[in-house]
Amino acid sequence: MVTLEGPKVIDFGIARAVDASVVTRTGSMVGSPGYMPPEQIRGEPLSGASDVFALGALLAYAATGQHAFSWDGAATHTVLYRVLHEEPALGPDAGPLTGELRALVARCLARDAGARPTLAEIGPLARERVGADFWLPASLTARLGQDAAALLEFDEPPAVPPPGPAPSTGPAPSAAPVTVPVPVPGKRRRAVLAAVAGAVAVGVALPLIALANSGGDDGGSDGAGGDPAEAPLADLLPAEVRAAGELTVWVAERHNPVLFEEEGAPVGFEVDLAVAMAQRLGVEPVFTLVDDRPTAVDGALRNSAEAPGHVVMSGFTDAPQRRAELGLDFVNHFADGFAVLSDDPGRSGELGLLCGLRVTSYDDEFLHEVIEENTGGCAEPPTWLPVPSRDDMAEAIALDEADVAVLLYSQGARYAHEHGDLGLSVALDSAEKGFRGIGVPPDQPALRDALAAAVDLLIQDGTYATLLDRWGIPESGIGTASVNGGSG
To answer: pTM of the full predicted structure?
Structure first.
């Protein structure tokens, strides 16, 4: 298993099972089709070369995201036939699996066991490419820590208390806030949970990282889930926030995948980002859920006057007029804008090119106005099919009732990511792309700058890109955090 503390060798009893009598029963088989070598399929004696074949199949999948013998979801008998008689599908020569790693994988997947490289050959090759200071690249270290932190739900689930009375000071919100603390993992549990979350074959880590990333990252990030005492940016926070040990995030309007709710708890890209930022700053993130944006903004402004450490997140657009209306500074942490969702991967995301098309989208007056503004010069304006959900948009396209759907990039990209079988793609209109920011009370410049530094650190150590990929919104990434509409 690959863990944040190093590789661990464990025994789940699988090796012993290979020699058990149950394996020799008629029709019995231990192993995964596409990862078992030809000799195992034929019922012949197994050796270390059998493990090397499985290693090659794992490396091919890790590098390309496609199974070498079952890339199309073929039935088991078809996969077994391919292993016995066909060459593995490793993708194009210039694709993700290329160079020395491709050559190694091809040899590992040789049908003849004697033609496969031995462990004595693979080990020195990996060590040579890695060097003496090897361990995990920053992006993988961050991912292991994030997965470890996620497992804390089983050990210490967030407490979601029932709605209580409205605060006694200031204007009463439209609905009582629901506060959801998200604990920062302790060091003891981090070591255990990271081992569980990062469980993969050590044989994959060595050659894959050595050959695919040779000459690249030579260090690892602290990773989400780090000990607060080791938080590298803790000194940037105001003393009152450090003493309180909490960063309170007020949450208003929600949409998947940026920030939404599942079973009363906040989830989404912004939630994961806030948790990772808080960990780098050495505080505990606490999410306060309210019904609307005015209540969230009021809560952050009112409470920060007595207890600094209150911010607002909900995909707020950072624009001068918006900052003036809300009375907030903004730390820009991702980008979003209107995009075109369709089953044509070559279609542009430009809204001005929707002339004459059948457009489906939410029944939203502002969105309709945006489309009309962009297509006002069309000789044949687009027709409009309002629907209540993204499922309805996808169905309209599938049934040829609509040519495209128009919605926020983050929403469309996440939907296409979750429904890969529909063949949908999303293209962002660059003219509509704009910053989204974390709202910070304007009298808290130290807190604002600390949050910007945390976003930058996450960008640098690979955590940020990992989170964008996790939520299927890679084009929402920015190069650096900025404050109040600055370049990023």
So the answer is: 0.57
